[in-house]
Structures are given as C-alpha cells and as structure tokens.
Amino acid sequence: MNAPQLPQGLGAARYIGQRVLRKEDPRLLTGRGQFVDDISLPGMLHCAFARSPIARGNIVSIDTSAAKDMPGVHAVYTQADLAHFNAQMLSFFLLPPEVEITPLAGSRVCYVGEPLALVVADSRALAEDAASLIEVEYEELDPVVTLADARAGPPIHPGTSDNVSAEMGDEELDDDLAATLNGAAHLVMHKVVHQRISQAPMECRGVVATRDGNEELTLWITCQSPHMIARWVSLSLGLPQTAIRVIAKDVGGSFGLKNHPWKEEVSVILAALLFGRPLKWIEDRYEALTTSNQCREAEMTLQAAFDAEGHLLASHGDYACNNGANPQGPDNNIAVHMFLWAAYKMPAYAFLTRGYYTNTMGLAAYRGPWALESLIRETLLDKAARKIGIDPVEIRRRNLVTLKDQPSVSSMGIPREDITPAECMEKLLQHFDLAAFRKEQVAARAEGRYLGFGLATYVEPTGSAGSMPVMTGELAQIRIEPTGKVTATMSTHSQGHGTATTMAQIIADRLGVAYEDVTVFEGDSARGGFSPGAAGSRQGVIGGGAAISAADLLAAKVKTIAAHLLNASAETITINGGMVHVAGAPEMSRKLGEIAAIAYGEPDRLPPGCESGLEVQHRYQPPPMTFTSAAHACVVEVDAETGFVKILRWISSEDCGTVINPAVVEGQISGGLAQAIGMVLLEEMPFDARGNPLAATFKDYLLPAISDIPEFEFVHANTPSQALGGMRGVGEGGAIIGPPTLVNAIADALSPFGELPDTLALPLTPTKLLSVIEGRDLTAHSAPAPVVVSADVPASEPAPAAAAPAGEVRVEGAWDMVLKTPMGPQGMVVTFAIVGSAVSGRFDSPEGTQEFSGGTLEEGRVRFDLKVEKPMKITLKYDLQFDGDSVSGKCKMGMFGSAKVSGTRKV
Amino acid sequence: MSEHRVNLTINGRRHAATVEARMSLGDYLRDEAGYTGVHLGCEHGVCGACTVIVDDRAVRSCLILAVQADGAEVTTAEGLADSDGTLHPVQQVMREEHALQCGFCTPGIVMTLAALTGGQDKADEATLMNSLSGHICRCTGYQGIRRAARRLAAEPGT
Q1: Is CATH 3.90.180.10 the right assignment for the domain spanning A36-141+204-251+258-291?
Q2: CATH of the domain at B15
Q3: How far, in Å, CA of A76 to CA of A275, rounded?
Q4: In CA terms, which of A3, A220, A548, A883 is 20 to 30 Å from A113?
Q5: Does the distance separating the beta carbons of B142 and A698 come in below 8 Å?
C-alpha cells in the first residue's frame, strides 16, 4: 500500500495521512455504543403497526375495538387521529410530495405493508399481539407492480393522469444525433435491468419520541444527521426547529435509507405528541425488508456510436426507475445522465428519463443513487471493445479525458478541471500485469477453467454544496479548555464513517496538540449547526475544510494572545505538543491550558480589543462540487459446471486527493465494494404479481458474507482537490464502480460462450450464468407475470402538452403553477400581462421574484424565455397551452431537457 | 402467558428474574438485565449480531429463550474488557485492524472470536473464517475482520 502524499501547505502533518486508531472503537467494541434501541425513558411505551396485506385498494372500514380492549394496550391510532397535524411528508430537498402521502394510510392503501394503524402498549410483544386483532375491510384493486405495469396500467394515485412521477429529456431523437448514431462505423446498444435492492443497514430504523412540555419534542432516531431530522420535522409539523432536539450518538449504518423520517417514524412522533408519554418504535428485520423504503430498481437502454477506431461519437440514453408508491423523492434520477459521460470525450448526448409510481415500497437513496450510469457505460464499453476488436484498456485510453484535456466541459455542461480516471487506470496497470494475465487466461481455458478480467473507470461528484438548499457548508466549533483539552462540535455525523476520528486528526495537526487531547462531539442537534450529514460523500471534503479553517483561526488567536502575554511577536510563536513556544526562548514555553485559563478568566491580561475565551466557529463553503476519480480491476473465475463466481483479485486505484486516514478511506471503499458484489451476485428484492415482497428474511435476501468478499488491494493516487485541505469524497465510490468492474470480469470469463444476454439483468445468479454457458435464454427470469388491470378502471391517456384551444382564452392575471424539476415539484405563482400578442410577466416563488418579457401569445399558446442564475445559469424556455382555467405545457431547461408544467388560474 | 423463574450469571454477576416463556435471551439481556451491547439485527439467526457466550460457547441470543439459559454463565461484549478499560485481546486486535465502522454487528463478532480463541483448543484460521461467515457486516467489506481473525489465529493461545 502506498503512503499517501500530502499536498503543499498542510504544514507539519503528524496525524493527517496516518492510520490513526479510531476514537469510536473502544466504546463500540465493548458494547457501550448508544443506539436508539438502547434508550429507555420513564413511562415509555412501545409501538407496533398494523399493515396492509394488499398492494392496492380502498379502505372500507377499520375496526380497532378488539385491539383497544386488550389488557396492556393504551391506545390505537389511525390516520383519522393523526390527520389534524397535517404532517407534510417532505423529500430530502424539503419539498412536499405532489401526490397524497400520509403518515398512516387514510382512505386507501398503495403498497403491501403500508402502515394503517399504530398500537401503543406496555411492550412491543403486546403491541404486536394487538395489531394482529385490528380488522380492516378493503375494496381490493389490481396492483401496478412493474415498470411495464406502470406504463400501461391505470394511475395509482388519485388526481394524476398517469404513473409518471417525473419526466425530463426528449422523446424524439434530434435529427443530427440520429444521423450520427445511425451513420457510425459501430453502433452499440446495451440494456441494463437493475433489480430492487434493500439498503439493509444492520441496525433497522427506530425512534424514541417524547413531548417535553407543550412545545418541545425530543427524538432519538436512526438518521444521517440529527440537524437534518430537526429541520425536516420542524418543517413537516410547523414547529420551531429549536424546539426539536434530535439525538443520534450511534447509528448502525444507513447508506441513504435514514436521510430523513418516513411514514413510521412520523406516525410515532405524532402519536407521542397525542399520547403525551414517551413512545418507542424499533423496526424488526421483517418490517425492514418488506416495508422500509428500498432502492435502485431501474432499467436503462444506452446507445453509443463509435468511429472505426473506437472513438466515441454520440450517445443516447433512455432511463426509467420504479419509484414505488410513496418514494422519499419521486424523481427521475437526472444525475444518471449528468454524469454518464462526464469522464469521457463524448461529443453529443441526449436522453429521456422518467420515474414511475407503482404499488410497491417507495424508493429512497442508496450509496451512489445514480450508479447505473457507470454500470451501463462501462459494460457497454467492454461490449464495444469486443465488437470493434480492441482491448478494454485501449477503448478507455482512446476516450477518457486525461489531465492534458482539461479544463474542459462535458457535453452535459459538467466542468472538468482536475479529474484523473485515465491516470488512475495507468497507475492501476502498473500494479497488474495484464499481458501475463492474458497468457494465464488462455492456459486456464485449455484446462476448462474460465478466468476473466474486468476493468472500469469513473468519476464521482462529491462534496456538493451551495446549489441545493440542504446541501450546505459544514460547521466546526472548536474550543481550547483551561485543562488544555480541545473539544470540537461539528455538523458532521457518523453512521460508521469515523468522523470523530478524522476530524480530530485534522484539528490536532492544525492546532499543534496531541490527537488524544482532541474530542469531537456530534450526533445531537443541540450542538453544532446544520448540515445534511453523510449525504453525497461530503463530510471529509467539507467537514474537513471546516475543521482546518476553524483550527487555523483558533491557532491564530492563541498566537496573538501568547505574543502579548510573553512580550514576543506573533510570528515567533509556535504551538507544538500542546505547548506554546517562542522561537529562541525555550524558557518562555507555556502550556496551552495556561493560555486558555487566562483567555477565559483574566480578560484584563489580553491584548486590547481581543475577545475573551479561546473558542471559534467557522462554516466552510467549499467549491460547488469536487470530483473523485478511480479505476478498478478484478479477476474472477466462473465455474462452468455450477455457474458460481469466485473473485480472485480486486485492485482499487482511486484519487481521493488528500487522505486523512487511509484506514478510513479504504474502509469506505471496501464497504461500497462489498455492497457492489452483493448487487451483482446476490441481492434481490423481488415482488410477485400482486405486489407482495418475496424476500422477508436474510435467508431470502442474501447479503454478502466474509466468504463472498475477496481481499481488496489499494493504490492511492493523490491529486489535491481545490477544496481546503485537498480532500475528495470516497463515501459512495465503491458501490458505483464495483458493479461494472465485476460484470466486465464475468463477461470476459464467459466470452468463449458468447456475449452475456443483450439485456443485462441483475443479479447474475448461477442459474443465469449457466444459461449463458449452456446457451439457454433466461432473459425473462424472475420477472413477475403481467398483471391484468381491472376493467372498471380504464387506463387514461396522458394529456397532450399542447391541446387545441377551446375558443377565446384569458391568459392575463395570476396562475398557480407547478414545474417538475429534477429536485421535485416546484410551486410558483406566475402573473401574465398581455398587450396584443406580446407577453410579459412575473414569477413569484419561495426562492424570489423574477420578471420576464418578450413572450408571445398565439391562440392560447404562450411562449417565453426566463433566464435564471440559480442553481446555475440557464435559460428556461416555457411553452404553455392555456385552456379555460387550466394550463399545461413544457419548460425546456437547456441540457436537462424538458420538464412538465401544470397549473390553474389563481383564485 | 406463562412466567418462569430464572437464575443466571451475566458477566460474573448473579441475576434472578421472572420471565415470560416467549422472551428470548437477547431480549432478556437487553431489556431486563440492561446489557444493551447485545444487538438484535435480524432475530432469525442469520446476522450474528446478538451472539453472546453461554457456558463457553458462542450462541445467538435471538434463537435461545431466556428460560433455556437458567443456571447458565453468560458473557456479553460488556464483560470482556478489564475494569480499568484494557481491551480484551480480540477487541484490541479488532481495533488495530479497523475491523468495524458503525459498530452494530461488532459485539457479535467479538463474542464469536472470543469464544473460539479464548480456551485451550484455539481454533485455526480456516475455522475462524468459517465461523465468521455466520456474521453479516454491511459496512466494512470484512477486510479488517479478516485481518483480525488471521492475527488471532496466529497468536499463541491464552
């Protein structure tokens, strides 16, 4: 393993870059962690849910009387009891859903397992007993389960015209793009069907909620940031954020699932407000697998055109994801398209992307939510290399953006300044003798052994801040106490990330104190300040920058005070080993704690104008985005008799800039790779045709065990980023680059038997691989049978964007409109002024007011351009059709394609 | 629901309790005896997080009832380290090898390794790896766990 190199300007680094032992570990190894189920409060009662056994239907009646009569049961709540709170089920971006989502099911159920009643009892066992006594009468409807069902079936949510939850891009291929694709020397088509995955953190979800007095609420909850929970709950319930205290000292993994509360947690919080005693709900594994939010289910078709030498010419992608019924964000995963070709010299790319509602569990985030872009691109490149007759390394060498090609901008508008996937690949190849492997592969095949080499390269956006409301900078507050101990409260949060360690390493280095003397506190919304926590591989980059800048400010203050006290100039003062030294005067050295004691207790001795105390805070605002690059390679052997895959070797060559702690960086990559291996070989959350989840235990939902995961080898490249300290994020990368690396190796191993099926459907189970080996077609394996939809619920046609106008239309005046943006629906009031056929007007939204002019009106059709600055400079081209008191149409959003607009006349 | 009297020793301390017949040992250790280091990850015997040592053997506490532990000597992750905070050799090696991240599966892995490396018949590396395949860790990709197990197999027995 390479010793990481430090960038210039980081000073004497005794801890940054070292495999320092984690501060969290003694507590966790001795069973002294504090997870939510470890919390017990006086008078606390326990909750269990009654859940829907059907995927779609109307609730005719709920009879809770038998449950309420059971001894030990204190209350049974249904949505009728909770409705008056009007709790908003917000997305990660804090936007309300555009379809009705309630904490408990109200008049209808829309997935199997949807909670519809909450029982409060003396124990969890009694609460479960009582929940089973609740009788519900349903009017059952045929469910919409698969993407195919969603396209053809009736809308599952009232008030919608189809099951499309979000749509962007263009349905018709641009003429020029079509000509390039069809006229190219090589056109490669590739389809990936990604199965549904359960994030499956080892600790299931849970919450303890207690009302403190009339206004305050304390929550212990599984989460990725207590600050994010406090903000989400405050906005959802309309309470002041400061009135909500959220504590989450230890969280047993999350991976995107616990970004914010969802139906069950909100129900418990509301029940605690109603009942007035502390309530606890701890999800069990059956609930976690069958009713928690899930992730990933999507399919994508990608076309890429190459010239005769294998250079990329143009590409088109068509993506769709199954969002389920109540997704945490009903989006269409625009990031797939943004980053698909970001690391490659791709002249032209266009796409169509859609999210669909179905009667299944709602999707939530999972490590690298846009990861399908790397899986489909890298597996397509290998397929293309075989077709063109060049090596997988060579096709990447011809197309990857190298440092020499930068700065440049991708065809999707992504600026590239210091990405290094090509350099990572070359570095990786120095550690793997591919020519020798090819000889070994040939020899092995002669013996009937099928070895394969897989390669993948990628870039990943990390440390995002400033373009979306919740993606903020990070805060560090650091204090030197009179004891000489240094304490820091950070906005970061760990669900295993080790931020109490890495942030302490940085602070110790920058302040010149011992690592043992620094303690980092997080996990409590009453401390520190807002950040979304572990979301988007951001904490090392931004939290690290905050720790550096706050520590530097504090060190400067120490030097100013010490110079004054010791009658020296500030430039001669150094801090080392918790001591303050004056150059050339060792007898003048003082303990840092002595300086602190004076700073707090004897303000008269401080320099004029110097604020007393020795504590600072700084919120670090990084560049908008920081890219991490990597190349991975693996070697597999596929057993041609059984179809089993054995991974023999795996090398990671990643560039995450400054490495704070190699053990933590490698831990993040390894964890992501294990999840990647699970996705390719083992994990799958299938549904039957009635929408029943078929994996209810860890005997059905197969997580990788130690015997499934090889030893990973690491090569660290270290190009410092432009963020303070030079870090780049590594939280998600392994889960993004792992799948194509492994699939490519399996495809290479099986190449003597032909290509993998045209549709790559994960997971690649032994049965599917045997079908390749034995030449059978199992493409449709595991896909549920199509559902016959009820005849009395006709499939409705989506409304055309521009219907013919009915007579004279009055456009003048104010309209309530909703624009379906990549971050969710955005509401606004648009006011039009009409003079002849000229249109001008004004947009009012929570983000501000913006005026426009130069528009045209023609037979009820209004077209105009709106130039916006945030989140990026872009011209929005509106094309609206007015009809009576309603309006619908499209907004063309530059490279993001088109988004739907709908609205009604403001009354 | 029938109730039963149990007497058992947990981490060297004697406990007497009345438990429902259906209460698992895991629930008893957590909710009644207060040893919250016992983590319930699946409650159907697959993930291994709830593993404790019952009479010198690693046992999944979700698959045994509290009444079955009557008279037994039970050790949990809280009972391994010295009272002065010195970690048990298994805990120390796991710390040095960065064999944990979120720490939820960790107590179970600690107990399995402690049970298999603590006595006279110390398990070899292959046995440790086989046993560890009964523990699921979603964070680490098992890299540090494997390194720790190798070191424990190579070190002389206690």
Answers
A1: no
A2: 3.10.20.30
A3: 10
A4: A220
A5: no
The per-residue pLDDT of chain A, averaged, comes to: 92
Contact A699 B22 (CB under 8 A): no
**ipTM score above 0.85:** yes
Would you say how long chain B is, in residues?
158
Amino acid at A850: Q
How far apart are the CA of A488 and the nearest CA of chain B, in angstroms?
Answer: 21
Interface probe for A, chosen from B23, B29, B78, B101 (most Cβ of A below 10 Å), is B101
- Distance from the Cα of B120 to chain A's closest Cα (Å) equals 23
The residue with tokens 């002065």 is B84
For B150, phi then psi, to 5°, come to -60, -45
Q: What's the token pair of residue A380?
A: 């397509």
Residue B83 lies in a domain: no
Closest alpha carbon within chain B to A126: B1
Tokens (6 digits) for A744: 């490519």
Residues 97-126 (B) with a CB less than 8 A from some CB of A = 98, 100-107, 110
pLDDT in tens, A634-679: 999 999 999 999 999 999 999 999 999 999 999 999 999 999 999 9
pLDDT in tens, A216-232: 999 999 999 999 999 99
Hunting for tokens 């110097």 — which residue is that? Answer: A610
Strands B13-20 and B3-10: antiparallel
Omega within 30 of 0 (cis) for the link into A846: no
Classify domain A298-463+625-773 by CATH number.
Answer: 3.30.365.10
CA-to-CA distance for A16 and A503, rounded, in angstroms?
10
Phi, psi of A212 (to 5 degrees): -110, 105
Reported residue count of chain A is: 907
Contact B37 A35 (CB under 8 A): no
Which of B103, B136, B142 faces A33 most closely, judged by CB atoms?
B103
